[in-house]
Amino acid sequence: MMLEEPGTPLRAVDMPVPAPGAGQVLIRVHACGICRTDLHIVDGELKEPKLPLVPGHQIVGTVVATGEGAGRYAAGERVGVPWLGSTCNTCRYCLSGRENLCDSARFTGYHINGGFAEYAVADYRFCFPVPAGYPDLQAAPLLCAGLIGYRSLVMAGEAERLGIYGFGAAAHIVVQVARFQGRHVYAFTRPGDIRTQKFARDMGAVWAGNSDELPPEELDAAIIFAPAGELVPAALRAVARGGVVVCGGIHMSDIPSFPYEILWGERVLRSVANLTRRDGEEFMALAPLIPVRTEVKSYPLEAANQALDDLRYGRFNGAAVLVISDPAEQDRLV
Ligand SMILES: [Zn+2]
Ligand SMILES: [Zn+2]
Q: Closest-lying ligand to the alpha carbon of 227?
């Protein structure tokens, strides 16, 4: 499913199976999660996509071939491919374990063709083994929603009372990790979104309400997953002195000006930029221990536009995932 022009629907096209270059693996994609970032790319809110582009950066698949030097993985092994697709490995960010900040970072489904396809190639150094016990469909949301959620949670510090603004794919994973760590989660949704508030409580939030309300207790930290800048002052008002507000998304509408007093008292406002490989390794080890369960709405690959639209309008709980059937199987049917 190809993006040719931002602002237009993806189009189903036939492409040759890509060949893995040096350091790359060729993956037969089984499932690919859909992320709000994909929506930002398709809508043209992120400005530097390669075009034409195969989006998708929560890939779960099986290695079918390896390029020169990509020997860590063997054919038949199941791997996951996240948003961070490659980095320079030589700059001061890369050399200090902060490769997510590398100036030359290349992103899957943005600079590099992603997983809304039957096959994808990926740099083996940025692939993760997928924990056994997770079916492909349930594993896919771990690759971005899970990883970004986990990094955001780490950035929120030791907070016991944790607010989450926007209860979608990332939040429904974070709430499980946070509960496992003994924290209390307060979930904020669009005003009046009763269905999502119920979902948040079902997933373990101690309170769920409207994003324009204050929670019943002051929070120690808040994570904002919704791309709405007006949530920043709302979250700053909800956190106690010394509290942290973490912006977990890659894109957000402009933040309205706000009085200094809501930042005063050593409150901290920060963003989280994608992920490091260490986050991936930590989270993939942690998820099966909890165990994190993902709530998934599946779509066939050809229905990618429908899935993106359903995400845009918040028509499902949890995460949307494209399921990619075996191309050989399809050929036999033809
Ligand atoms: Zn993502
Ligand atoms: Zn670098």
A: 1
